[in-house]
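Q: Got a minute? One more chain.
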Amino acid sequence: MKNILKNILRWANVLLILVTLLAYLSPFINPAKIWHLSFLGLSYPLLLLANVMFALFWLWQKNKRFLFSTGCILVGAGYFSSLIGLNIFDGNASPENTISVTSYNMAQLRRYYDYQGNVNQAKLDWFKSELRKNLNPDILCIQEGAYNHTKRTVQNTLQFKYFFKEKGTIIFSKYPFADSGIILFENTSNSCIWGDIETPSGLVRVYSVHLQSNWLGPAASKVAQDSDPRKKETWNGIAQVMRLYKRAAARRASQAEMVAAHVAKSPYPVILCGDLNDTPISYVYQVLAENMTDSFCEKGAGFDFTYAGKIPGLRIDFVLTSSTFEIVDHQVPKLELSDHYPVLVELKRM
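A: Always. Here it is, folded:
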């Protein structure tokens, strides 16, 4: 019996290593062609944890098989900095002439307004108080801000003089705009806007982007609640979730390519903020982060997950910048105001 169990563990370990190696390929394969790898990339934190556990188990057993799991982990070592911030001992003191930037998906302020625009005043007053207490950026990029009450509430609360809004994305600024525009995504409510902003250190181009949402919530919840592998309905539900994810992943890839092409033509240094609805182990991130600096990788500490919804452990909100910026500070305060946490970054133009 003991030998049978060990054989099962050996083959499970081999399968895990193969799946993990495939996940490492996900940033380089367009999900419009092979979407399955994108799904594996999303699972990277769990795959990493499983490999660590196998390595420790084989080491405890004094079995050389621990080298296989250890080697698999080391092959993907380049992904560590996108998952775990190693800047634990960095100071937070901001030098002069910095720009403070925040990216925040505010989920249409659904917790405070219903779909008819009726307000829960007590909750809204609390929201405004928390917003004033915790956020005071020079530039604030909002996603899921389609309703006018979202724009109005944020602008009045934080006293922004300038803004640009199209569809669900907004850029608020304490500095004036020299120009602005929108990158049109077809057949979706998601959007990307940009603005050339006259900061004290010169013109910069700021993007607020919200890429295609997965919309897996209702379907995934139904599968989780009524899951019974003996029932055909369970497998039909799983197939539906996979179809939804496949379609969303392909759309995000196309949208990311459009945004990256626009960024490449920018005449000014770029600050790209947004909810990418994908993790750093993804094709979308690879396309947008190429030749850019991820504020988390530079100044993040620990696990700065940004999604506060039902699926734990996701970093899907980002601030990416041109190399002409120095990242001075990166914070993700755990404000329970939305189903996302804000990303707060201090920048200095070099």
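A: DSSP finds eleven helices and 14 strands in the chain.
Q: Perfect, thanks.
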